[in-house]
Amino acid sequence: AADRSLIFRRDASRNRRLTLTIYGSLLHATYWIWYVADFIPSVNGAGVPEIHIDPRVGWCGLGIGAVMVAGSVLYPQHCVAEMRRPPPGTPGALVWTLHALPYVHLASTASGTLYGRGQLRMENEKDRELAMSAKGGIAAYNGHLALKVDNRRLRLLLQPGAGSVYDVAALSNMLLGRKGEGRKKDGAVSARQQKKVMRDHARRRQR
Questions:
Q1: What does the pLDDT look like over 144-161, one tens digit per residue?
Q2: CA distance 140 to 128
């Protein structure tokens, strides 16, 4: 039977690319660690001025490598992997992001987050215009949409074209809606309510 609670799920085949990016950046950073810690001291210690290497070159490469590692690990943790309707009677949306290590994959059922109505919203007008003007609707938009979340410093990223949109109307209504709808917000979701909803969802998934 069709899972009617499912609104969006990211295509899992795309996660392989993210995993390769993480380990590629780790390998790149490891090379620069060796370059700074071993190669430069060995070359400069030879006492040959013609082959002297400025240590700043190594530190610059290592700094870039560290930024690449941080970005490749943080991106999956802020990438929306799945979005579902909460149990009946609970407004808002259940959202799962990806886990980055040891490989990029969908977080476990219990690790989803319940966002109340209006607490997960797309406020950037340029993003709204791009999503609405995409040929084929929001489901065909392959760019990233930044979703503002209350009490969270960094925004979540949703890439509609990178997955299977099971309910285009629900996704569009949730993210786009009519201008001004995003101001209608529920109160913050309590930890107790969060746990109850996740338990109910886990039970429904096991049936």
A1: 888 888 767 788 888 887
A2: 14
